[in-house]
Amino acid sequence: MRLIFAGTPEFAVPILEAVAAEHEIAAVLTQPDRPKGRALRLEPTPVKAAAARLGLPVLQPARLRDSDILQALDGLRARAIVVVAYGKILPPPVLELTPAGCVNVHPSLLPKYRGPAPIQRAIAAGETVTGVSIMKLDEGMDTGPVYKQAEVPIGPDETSGELAGRLNKVAAGLLLEVLREIEEGTAKPAPQPAEGTIAEKIEKEETEIDWSRTAKQIHDLVRALNPAPGAFTTFQRGRLKVWRTQMYADGPTGTAGEIVSVEPALLVATGSGHLRLLELQPENKKRMPAADFVRGYSPAVGTKLGGD
Questions:
Q1: N or C: which end of the chain has fewer CB within 10 A?
Q2: Which domains are delineated in the chain?
Q3: Is 163 exposed, middle or buried (0-12, 13-18, 19+ CB in 10 A)?
Q4: How far is CA 202 from CA 124, 194, 207, 287, 305, in A?
Q5: pTM
């Protein structure tokens, strides 16, 4: 089946590869190159780089509503547009461009966690199960009818990055099933309930650890924000990112945010329970195991994190 693939981040790459192995990709639609690093050099999106490896033509319009890009897309005569984290809302002319419309991969069990941050929000909320939905886009935010869904368990210490790496593999297989049904004319998407939950984008103020929350809530936040943007606290007037933690059943008494042990484990008291800090990143430094942080920065028992 002749398709257009629209996607941008690393999450979409395995799905592009799977679709390209079974279908004809007329073009890959992805976001424009963005400046990165200290030198601000333009870098291609992960999907653009993958498309180049696969020898697929790439389109990177700044605006999808422009008549020239709409004409270019229409001229590809695709049966459907596959959308995987493209990064922008598709306007009605694009939604209606192909006979089968836009088939979207969404990493949640819709109608839960509609919106831009479903993986992070599910982990931050302490969910133990999430999943993948293959749905047809409409003008709402992930409100279109659903073709298929698959449940995926969330590990108690799993990060957003780790979960995304499993979800996109499940999504690739599920999407291929849906595309076969579309090609055969047997696909029957079911309408979603009107009510659902929204997974809003993570805001900067949400990334600071509030040590008065429970150990479980903080642990889930740290997992949710790994690999980006990262949860942080403060230590010696500098920002300290916390990348990995572990629930700790019994620890010395302390107030919320207080370091209660440094050996053999770096333990911090919370509003309820204790957390063992496993991987940290002081300001302007690389990530390091907590043991290296203890050796290099000599945090003292009784020091308060987040109090600067």
A1: C
A2: 2-184 (3.40.50.170), 204-297 (3.10.25.10)
A3: buried
A4: 10, 24, 8, 22, 22
A5: 0.95
